[in-house]
Design brief:
The strands form two sheets. The chain has a two-stranded parallel ribbon. Strands 3-4 form a two-stranded antiparallel ribbon. Strand 3 and strand 4 form a beta hairpin. It has helices at about 5-20, 30-40, 55-60, 75-80, and strands spanning about 45-50, 65-70, 85, 95. It is built from four helices and four strands.
């Protein structure tokens, strides 16, 4: 049996996070362990599925990766805040372009 959380679950989840005043930001706990192996493998592009409000995608972009981030929840997409992240090597700000599609 396959169990999954659909868009309604995630919309409610992110709505509750917004109402509580807390974003789901793991402060790099997810991305940090992957940075060395990604660099060693010569990876330059990352696809993040289930990006939530985009915090990890922004961190990866700040590390110099080209990131495509996808999120099912329109609620999470609505909370994306494009904040300039300085590129790790150049210091130049990364400008986010957020696009999202949510279906009901």
């Amino acid at each position: 049996m396959v169990v999954h959380a659909g868009v309604e679950f995630w919309d409610q989840f992110f709505r509750q996070r917004l109402e509580s005043g807390h974003d789901l930001d793991w402060a790099g706990l997810w991305t940090r362990p992957f940075l060395v192996p990604l660099r060693q493998a010569g990876v330059r592009t990352v696809l993040e599925l289930g990006c939530g409000t985009g915090n990890d995608a922004a961190r990866l972009a700040g590390e110099g990766y080209s990131v495509t981030a996808i999120e099912l929840s329109g609620g999470a997409i609505g909370q994306l805040v494009p904040v300039p992240v300085p590129h790790r090597e150049t210091g130049e700000p990364f400008k986010h372009v957020w696009r999202g599609i949510a279906r009901r």
